[in-house]
């Protein structure tokens, strides 16, 4: 961020018409710390009950929530009712997939474990319709955009399945660990491959690797090497081609 208009506000800098920030679905510890920091920075902090009573009006209003699916769904419902409301998602885990998932639905995202000054800076940027990103995340998102392919929003379980398949797990072993029959596992994998825009296991792993989905959480910088020649033979019969 640069100095001047882009700098986070100091105490009282926003004046009487200061932006309202609603805190949703946060732990008491996070909520207390963020309330104090945002209040000191000049924001008007509101609770979830007050956010429910928001109606259309002039002025900047925002919400800060966790990136749990239920919390993001609540934010989406609020923004359908009040499109002008901006939002910041606090990421419980830090990787490019989490950033992409949050930014598809929110104005900005920041790790929940970030320092308070970073959290405040992110909220301030979002209040101006901007997003702050780590350089590595920005580069990876830009690289994905250059391919012209949109990364689908997968569940954590689906990503775990892809990682297990990349490690040469069999469909039978996946079915056993997930509590499904082998036939049901084939059906679920076929649906997963279709979501990735492919039909075979090898194609799915190639695409997942290109999107960074096969990397462990918090390890974007580590390259993942795949032995694709062994994957199909290790799986037995593949889902439909």
Would you give an account of this structure?
With 241 residues, the protein is an alpha/beta fold. It folds into 2 domains: 141 residues, Rossmann fold, CATH 3.40.50; 80 residues, Arc Repressor Mutant, subunit A, CATH 1.10.10. Helices cover 47% and strands 10% of the residues. The chain has 11 helices and 5 strands. A 5-stranded parallel sheet has the order 2-1-3-4-5, sandwiched between helices. The longest helix has 15 residues. The radius of gyration is 21 Å and the shape is elongated. It starts with 19 loop residues before the first strand and ends in a 6-residue tail after the last helix. 31% of the residues are buried. The N terminus and C terminus are likely disordered.
Instruction: Give the SSE string.
Output: EHEHEHEHEHHHHHHH
Q: How would you sum up the global shape?
A: elongated
Report Rg: 21 Å
Structural class: alpha/beta
Level-2 CATH architecture of the largest domain:
3-Layer(aba) Sandwich
Low-confidence regions: 1-5, 11-16, 217-241
Question: Number of folding domains?
Answer: 2
Average pLDDT taken over every residue? 81
Going across the biggest sheet, name each strand in turn. 2-1-3-4-5
Write down the oligomeric state. Answer: single chain
CATH class category of the largest domain: Alpha Beta
Q: Helix tally? A: 11
The CATH superfamily label of the largest domain reads: Response regulator
Number of strands: 5
